[in-house]
Amino acid sequence: MSSEKESKTLAVVNCAQLVTLAGPERPRVGPELRDLGIVANGGMFVREGLIESVGSRDEIESLIESDTEVVDALGRVVLPGFVDAHTHPVFGGTRVDEFEERSKGATYEEIAARGGGIQSTVNATRAMYEEMLAYKCWKYADWFLRSGTTTIEAKSGYGLSLEDELKILRIINRLGSETPLRYVPTFLGAHSIPSEYRSRRDEYVSLIIEEMLPAVAQEKLAEFCDVFCEQNVFTTDEAWKILSAARCHGMGLRIHADQLSLSGGAQLAAELGTVTADHLEHTDAAGIAALKEAGVQPVLLPGSVYALGSSRYPAAREMIDAGLAVVLATDFNPGSSPTPSIPMILSLASTHMKMTPAEGISAVTINAAYSLNRGAQLGSLEPGKIADFVIHDCSDYREISYFFGIEHPSHVYVHGTLISRR
Ligand code: NIG
Ligand code: FE
């Protein structure tokens, strides 16, 4: 098997299926989602961390140079590293006590209303020094990598003060340079109204717009801005103000929309032309049509539906049939979706949302990469792209969605370097 030292060239051979996702240079829609560009008995040649050629085993073997490192995939499946386009990976504590309460019948909304929920994680996160918090979150980076994810979008949102939001975003940027996982940072100061502002919510919205956004932009700490738009959280008017201000600072826009109720989030996303609208469990046909018209990518998060014990999954089939460039993500967070596992999300997408395994794979690779403005570099195995790829211990890619509760990756490569093996 391969060695862990860096090599200038790398030849990956003997892949039962090299799942390339090769195709048009844009997110995939409709029937395109089922076309994974699989090369049977394929291989790939990598130079200086970039993919140089993709082809049959014979073609790739003919390129091998004297010092090329040869990686024998032993008849297994090779995929691009998963791109997880919605996570909240920097938080203090856990919410295991609330998990137990929910197991006895309490609801997520009830727990939040009595000061638990996001606010309890905010308290735990504020209480941790930057070093300690960064150290804690290294572990989650490792979890993502081991489950085959090589890039994550990472939101702040458990600080909710200028100082603590900056602390979280600095940690995200630091983890991006100190771990092999790629991070795309998103500012989510509008995740909740913190308890000290409960009776003066306008002041908190002003704090976000007048102090937090300029500071985040000044330090270049985030590429995107997100708002949790929901009844009893941020109204559509507040979300409009915050996202419009973020746009003026050059940030891309994302929004938590229609998660717990039909609250106008998808319509607002369409009106603003956000890059993504995320969750969408309650979005209706008019909302789906509006997203299509505006070219907004839906990011669907079945892990949170599952972990909250709900059965209201987003209408993925209707969205695909309407021509939306669907993305799937984990929503990794301590409250509603404590999983970093894209394979688990793929299982849920097929069993509860009737997405085929192929549609699921497109949604967690190429479409997710485009939703993060990384479509030209990541999300498929094509010449010129970064060699982030994973050998999965199976001979048919559909096994990744089918066998659930186990981790399939045996070898994870980032930029052509082996960073995790099992
Ligand atoms: O995406 N919806 C808002 N934010 C998270 C939940 C965060 C939490 O409960 O801590 C979500 O589900
Ligand atoms: Fe979320």
What does this protein structure show overall?
With 422 residues, the protein is of the alpha/beta class. Helices cover 36% and strands 23% of the residues. It is built from 16 helices and 15 strands. It has an 8-stranded parallel beta sheet with strand order 5-6-7-8-9-10-11-12. A 7-stranded mixed beta sheet has the order 3-2-1-4-13-14-15. Strand 8, helix 8 and strand 9 form a beta-alpha-beta unit. Helix 5 packs across helix 6, helix 7 runs parallel beside helix 8 and helix 9 packs parallel to helix 10. The chain is globular, with a radius of gyration of 21 Å. N-(iminomethyl)-L-glutamic acid binds next to helix 4.
- In spatial order, strands of the major sheet run 5-6-7-8-9-10-11-12
**What low-confidence regions span 5 or more consecutive residues with pLDDT below 50?**
1-5
Helix content: 25-40%
Beta strands, count? 15
Measured distance between first and last alpha carbons: 12 Å
Q: Major beta sheet, specifics?
A: 8 strands, parallel
Question: Number of helical runs?
Answer: 16
Q: Are any ligands bound, and if so which?
A: N-(iminomethyl)-L-glutamic acid, fe (iii) ion
The structural class is: alpha/beta
What integer value in Å does the Rg equal?
21 Å
Q: What's the structural blueprint in terms of helices and strands?
A:
Elements: E1 9-19, E2 38-47, E3 50-56, H1 57-61, E4 69-80, E5 82-87, H2 96-103, H3 108-113, H4 118-126, H5 130-146, E6 149-155, H6 162-178, E7 182-190, H7 201-218, E8 224-229, H8 236-248, E9 252-257, H9 265-272, E10 276-279, H10 285-294, E11 297-300, H11 302-307, H12 316-321, E12 327-328, H13 342-353, H14 357-363, H15 366-371, E13 389-392, H16 399-402, E14 409-414, E15 417-421
The chain binds N-(iminomethyl)-L-glutamic acid (NIG) and fe (iii) ion.
